[in-house]
Design a protein that fits this description.
Layout: E1 14-21, H1 25-36, E2 41-45, H2 62-69, H3 72-78, E3 80-82, E4 84-88, E5 95-99, E6 111-113, H4 116-129, E7 133-136, E8 139-147, E9 150-157, E10 160-171, H5 178-182, E11 186-188, E12 195-202, E13 215-220, E14 224-231, E15 235-242, H6 244-248, H7 254-263, H8 266-272, E16 276-277, E17 283-286, E18 290-292, E19 296-297, E20 300-302, E21 308-309, H9 317-337, H10 342-365, H11 370-377, H12 385-393, H13 401-441
Parallel strand pairs: 1-2, 1-10, 2-7, 4-13, 10-20
Antiparallel strand pairs: 3-6, 4-5, 8-9, 9-10, 11-18, 12-15, 12-16, 12-17, 13-14, 14-15, 18-21, 19-20
Helix pairs in contact: 1-4, 1-9, 9-10, 12-13
The structure holds flavin-adenine dinucleotide.
Flavin-adenine dinucleotide (FAD) binds near residues 21, 46, 53, 172 and 178.
Length: about 450
């Protein structure tokens, strides 16, 4: 089947077992796995690959998924080796390296950074090689559910509009959240809202030796943070993330505002002062955090960002999308054979994903909190807690009990430190008040 053209004559619907909306990592993964199990799969991507996408830093726990998909060599060929993550620190060189090889358990000792246009295109074509009918430049504009195994999608493509009948619909449309939006299931995360500005640079300073591919994270201002993600060909992806209040301060030029944020952290700016932007303009996105009230229903399921998006700080998005897609393939495969098991399997998948997201979100919501910043600046491996944090950074947040125990210990230490901080702050506040009263009486 040609990748970009529909086969059915005008007015006649095509049929398939599974329709996948979206050709990002989530969509291509689930399409590959279901096609391999013998289902007829049509995957539709509204853009044409290769297309730019943000989200370049991958986690070690992505690697076992690449192995299972059979794309490990392809990822190795297009990726930049990533040995760990750097955070600012109170030591002589100014940063700590959390090396993935020190993680607890069996997560791989490294990851990769990728140009997403290459990575996503590779996964999309891999799905096609595995038997899925993957078409790009085709946008789904409507989905009607006639009954639990009869769904009709309207598609607008290069040759006009056509319809597809599918027994199952998987929405992997990313932050468009196609089905969650139309079903009014999408809800904004009230605790956490951020936006980002980003661009690619040449001439930035990389870490030395095997750490040249480390992702580096910096804090700036009250609630801002920034990423430096090394890519192939000596390119550095640089982004700043902050709350909407920070972005409201912008007066005038976006590029100038972006550079002001980069300059506000001296250590980060030192690595960028001789670098230049590759594209003239920086890009912007509101990555306001959201999720869907539920992950699926009879004959439909949400995968990846179409179900929920947290925050980019720990580079968890692609892993959550691909891991969710693997489990989604099991759910759909079973549901098509044994419909009675569908609801329970969807609930189990939803619970698993929410639990994983919650484990990341504890750190995400508190990333700029002074106590969290202090603990990251001065990590100590008491009871292997630092190694547990490295496992979290590797994406090992689902099944490893050793890691989960360390994350619980870290949360306890964080709680005690916050309490001590509060007591210090409260004592100082009381003293200031006493002095002010005394001054007033004098
Ligand atoms: C600022 C920022 C930085 C990030 N950094 C990282 C990072 O470093 N590492 C990381 O892992 N994650 C990162 N992420 C998150 C990451 O980008 C996503 O989590 C990941 O791409 C999700 O994959 P997906 O397949 O669910 O969705 P996507 O990759 O978004 O793919 C969805 C696809 O669906 C297509 N589509 C949408 N609507 C339709 C339609 N109606 N019909 C047909 N096709 C449609 C879109 O064109 C798109 O190609 C970042 C996110 C942001 C906002």
């Amino acid at each position: 089947m040609n990748a970009t053209s529909a086969t059915a004559p005008a007015g006649v619907a095509e049929n398939c077992d599974v329709l996948v909306i979206g050709g990002g990592p989530g969509g291509s993964t689930v399409a590959t796995l279901l096609a391999r199990r013998g289902w007829s799969v049509i995957g539709l991507e509204k853009e044409r690959h290769p297309r730019f996408h943000i989200g370049e830093s991958l986690l070690p726990m992505n690697l076992p998924i690449f192995e299972r998909l059979g794309v490990m060599d392809k990822v190795r060929a297009l990726g930049k080796y990533k040995a760990g993550a750097d955070f600012e620190a109170d030591n002589e060189r100014g940063y700590n390296t959390f090396d993935f090889c020190r993680a607890l358990g069996s997560s791989p000792p490294h990851a990769f950074e990728v140009y997403r246009q290459e990575f996503d295109q590779m996964l999309f074509e891999h799905a096609r090689e595995n038997g899925a009918d993957m078409r790009d430049g085709e946008r789904v504009t409507q989905v009607e559910h006639e009954d639990s195994r009869q769904h009709v999608a309207t598609v607008r493509g290069a040759d006009g509009e056509y319809t597809i009948r599918a027994r199952y619909v998987i929405d992997a449309s990313g932050r468009d959240a196609f089905l969650a939006g139309r079903k009014k299931l999408k809800r904004k995360n009230r605790k956490h809202q951020t936006a980002a500005l980003f661009g690619h640079f040449t001439g930035a300073e990389f870490r030395d030796g095997e750490h040249a591919g480390n992702v580096s994270l910096y804090r700036f201002g009250q609630n801002g943070w920034a990423w430096l993600i090394p890519l192939r060909n000596e390119v550095m992806s640089v982004g700043v993330v902050a709350g909407p209040d920070h972005f409201k301060q912008r007066r005038g030029d976006t590029n100038a505002f972006f550079f002001d944020m980069l300059k506000s952290n001296a250590a980060m700016w030192k690595r960028l002062e001789n670098a230049s932007l590759i594209d003239e303009r920086v890009q912007a996105t509101g990555n306001y955090s959201y999720d869907a009230r539920r992950i699926g229903g009879p004959g439909w399921l949400l995968v990846g960002d179409a179900f929920g998006f947290l925050d980019p700080v720990f580079s968890s998005g692609v892993l959550l999308a691909m891991s969710g897609a693997e489990h989604a393939a099991d759910v759909v495969d079973t549901a098509l054979r044994q419909p009675r098991r569908e609801a329970a399997m969807q609930r189990r998948l939803e619970k698993r994903l929410r639990t994983g997201m919650k484990r990341f979100s504890f750190f995400i919501y508190r990333f700029n909190n002074p106590v969290m910043a202090r603990l990251f600046r001065n990590p100590r491996n008491v009871c292997r807690i630092e190694q547990g944090i490295i496992s979290m950074l590797a994406g090992d947040v689902f099944d490893n009990r050793d890691v989960l125990r360390r994350l619980t210990m870290f949360r306890t230490i964080y709680g005690i430190n916050s309490l001590l901080d509060f007591r210090t702050w409260f004592g100082e506040w009381r003293e200031r008040r006493r002095q002010a009263r005394a001054a007033y009486v004098d």
